[in-house]
Amino acid sequence: MHRPALLLFLxxxxxxxxxxxxKGRYFDLPPLPDPALYGNRLLxxxxxxxxxxxxxxxxxxxxxxxxxxxxxxxxxxxxxxGTTEITxxxxxxxxxxxACHDGKEAFGHTPDNCDRCHTGDLTAGADKFNxxxxxxxRTSYGNNIDWVxxxxxxxxxxxxxxxxxxxxxxxxxxxxxxxxxWTMIPPAFFSxxxxxxxLDCANCHPDIFNVKKKTTAHFSMRYxxxxxxxxxxxxxxxFPLDDCDRCHPAMH
Amino acid sequence: xxxxxxxxxxxAISVIVSVSAGAETFGMRKQIPRPDAYGRVVxxxxxxxxxxxxxxxxxxxxxxxxxxxxxxxxxxxxxxxxETGVREAxxxxxxxxxACHNNKEAFxxxxxxxxxLTTKPVEACDRCHSVGKAITPEKDFYxxxxxxxxxxxxxxxxxxxxxxxxxxxxxxxxxxxxxxxxPIRYAGEVVLHAREFNMPEIVFSxxxxxxxxxxxxxxxxxxxxxKGATKYTMQDxxxxxxxxACHDKVSFPMNFDCRxxxxxxxx
Lengths: 252, 267
Hints:
The structure holds two protein chains of two kinds.
Chain A: H1 3-23, E1 40-43, E2 55-58, H2 59-63, H3 68-74, H4 88-92, H5 114-117, H6 126-133, H7 147-152, E3 175-178, E4 188-191, H8 192-196, H9 201-204, H10 221-224, H11 244-247
Antiparallel strand pairs in A: 1-2, 3-4
Chain B: H1 3-21, E1 40-43, E2 55-58, H2 60-63, H3 68-74, H4 88-92, E3 113-114, E4 122-123, H5 124-128, H6 141-145, H7 159-164, E5 189-192, E6 201-205, H8 206-209, H9 215-218, H10 234-238, E7 262-264
Antiparallel strand pairs in B: 1-2, 3-4, 5-6, 6-7
């Protein structure tokens, strides 16, 4: 073996070995919670520091009425827990949660309503979920609800915007065939139309995915499983990556 | 082992080490700045080296009174932080910030305590050199923008509508320092064809852009003046070139709604 090649091999070994050991096997996916708890978050960036119980946010409850776009584009909610600077004062100002929870669109930020969000309990509302879930089209994994089908069947009409004069959505419906990087793995199919039921172009472009074909660096299953790219949503709120054949339909 | 081989090995090792050790930010969404922090620039060409706190510059607090052109053309401010190289001596000679911050047009640099601030008086220096200091700004973002038309992006202010309604008045000259220019007469709209199939076309309005800018802001450096001569893609723009020189930094961001520019349906 040439010395540069040997050096390169050793460098690779040293650089990747600790990561591989830390991550375990590629398909060592995080354990899934109960369907009623999938997508539930306790918001505690500043709550307990200020002597208040953390606020429970249930994605299922909110996505039944609003698209992801409303909060993650219009209202400026970041994608990582604890990075959005929500405060009670800003809510009272009509920002963040307060954009809806104003006593008109949804229950307001009044003293008698504090406990409705600040429960400190990740499992609160499970009964409500079970009653809701039986009315929805079923599937495996995540919330066990086929959210896309629910919209297509008209069982849900999530609001796309809170703005008085919203710009009209772009009807971009190109389907993409994404060839897998590993041999024997059939391609994944991506439907812009299905994603547009919940999202805006800006949810994914240009931060997560470039708009020019095949120019998104590092886009691979390995990083999806790390919670990047598709995994940013599809491990946390939308159906988890455990459901291989929903994206790779020829996979058994 | 040849020189080239050694060089390849060294580069490969450093690349691998940096990739495995550094925080990986690809494949994630960027943080959305708070409305009052959108367009915030920290100026630190010389400050930290001179043991002074760096300057916090808020675009919202300047664009509500002055045109972009006044600073970025007449006063010679570059378009990227750190490229202008503003020195204290420049300011005191009436250049850059000092063109306005001279005790006449706006507060100056004297080390006296100023009254009338929202909390307690602060030294004039600290009003700009405020990184790491608990300075309550004289102009409160909410108070300034409260009555302005709202948008869901950037500063959450529809600046164009605010100007059109007469809620803000933009100054385009500093008497005795810059030359007064006539408003742009060219009021055309340019339709830009998108390469992507079925992507709505862009209707670029010179009229709207001329409210804050003069021709010189964009031509000839960013865009040539001959139609179709400047070729660029959306990816270029996302990387901060062409439209991206302003949009996504100060003017409305591009990770909000494509329809703000792509307005004209093809079919």
